[in-house]
Amino acid sequence: MSLARTDPTKRYWNLTSAIWVLLIAAMFATAVLTQRSLSRLADSREVNTHSLVVNKALNDLMNQLLDAETGQRGFLLSGRAPYLQPYYTALTQMRVSRAALGVALSQDPSAIAPLGALDKAIAAKLQDLDRIVKLKSEGRSDEAVELILTDTDNQTMNAVRAAWRGLGTDQARRTSQLEAEIEQEIRNYYLTLGVSILVNLLLLAGLVQRFRNAAVQKDAAQQEMDQRNVELSRLLAAAATRNEQVHGLSELSRFLQSCEDLDEAAGLLKQHLPPLMRAASGSLYLATAGQDPLRQAFTWGDKSFVEYFEPNECWAARLRQPFRQPFETGSASCAHLQSEYASAHNNNNIQCLPLMAYGELLGIVVLEADAASDPQESQENEGSRRFALEQVGFSIGNLKLRESLRQAAIRDVLTGLYNRRFFDESSQRALIRALRQQTKGDYAGLALMMIDIDHFKRFNDTHGHEVGDQVLREVAQVLQSQTRGSDVAARYGGEEFTIVLADITDQLAFERAERVRQKVEQLVLHASGKEVVTVTISIGLSQFPTHGTTVEALLLAADRALYEAKSAGRNRVVVAS
Description:
Blueprint: H1 2-78, H2 84-104, H3 112-137, H4 141-149, H5 151-213, H6 219-257, H7 262-277, E1 281-286, E2 294-300, E3 308-309, H8 315-319, E4 323-324, E5 350-357, E6 360-368, H9 375-410, H10 420-440, E7 446-453, H11 456-463, H12 465-481, E8 488-493, E9 496-502, H13 506-521, E10 526-527, E11 530-531, E12 537-544, H14 551-567, E13 573-575
Helix pairs in contact: 1-2, 1-3, 1-5, 1-6, 1-9, 3-4, 3-5, 5-6, 6-7, 6-9, 7-9, 11-12
């Protein structure tokens, strides 16, 4: 009889142990699948970052080639050596951009042939530019002009554009292909992960059922089974929570990568970040450029937090690592939590967590978490918060990198104004809009200013190029301060600037130009501790449609008016006739 009872008990425990082993194996498989899905998400971010770097290098290379061509044309038309400075500067920058492009594509064998074609086309174009510069320098202007009028110049530039587009298209295709492959792998991982969780649930259900059947066993055995049941439930809940967190982070990262700017990203974080932090109250502070204060993006819960604070007022920002507030406020606690806004907080539960990416502080998360009864649960919560902030930090870092690359493509580096390329595009859009308004009968006006700094060469010759650059920056700041959101102020080239004024009458356009001229005249510049001669500008003003119905015609009319202003003594505004 005793042997008969022993055999079923042994079979029972053998089968129970087998289910236990299968459950642990399934949970381990779930953890492995989670890690692999996160790894592929990181690969996706690397592919996007590499694509942004390649696109920036390609755009820089093309813009610098256009700058070189502009400088060569300016030298050919004016015969003045200073116009060659943008030409040689662009050549130097092209070598740097080409080196950056080569490094970015060094691991891509398929890019060797398109990159070689681009190098060959650029070399041919640069050879044409250099031949024209030499002819002009030798006094053979007619031959230089004749060479430009031939179709060879256009052919070489078209060859460069074709090679440039071909390489860009190839890289875009390759990036799309890699992203599609990674997305497919991630979908497969999610499907397998779902099956794994389902297996976990089934195994747990079977194990719980067997534990219930073991109620007839001894009290000691029953207690042991109950303990295992509690532990398994906790492990499964932790696995489900981790899976939910991974899924939420995956969705959040996907949306963050598609955001246009940081404000849109903050809106998404306001919705998704609080559940990931597992805290009843908290606040997100985001950093801006320079040493500006960390400003509050949003809060959640019923606690109050300061609207902004300096980075040196937070130990987490200074140490670049999470910081838990001590029991008592003082020099060892964060200064921004010692104000009246935080006086009601239980400081022992307040944490400051840095939001980092690529070694840069992007923001601070301040939260008040409920005290966990289990130390292991508290440790898991801490790890989950850090992991979530690490992923969010990378996404925001990529967003800021993409925005900086976009600004670099449309902004002049020295002055901060829009560059020639952006001016060409935006002026065409403004003119099309004006034509549409004219057709509808609600046309409000459009004007174009061509601005030139008077005697700019004297600043460089007398005080050096650093002062000349300072003059350009100061004048650019005046232009920026005197334009509206609908206007476009751009550096046209050298010391020349342009402003497109939309929705403005002819009289108001003239008054605006006169105000710009007066503001520049009021500038006081210093070099080596001494006051520099007052800066003045001459302005040529053309208006649509009186002086032209195309951007080229308006530019030509404004340029002629600018020439009249300089001939009449400079420091004046002349309207095109």
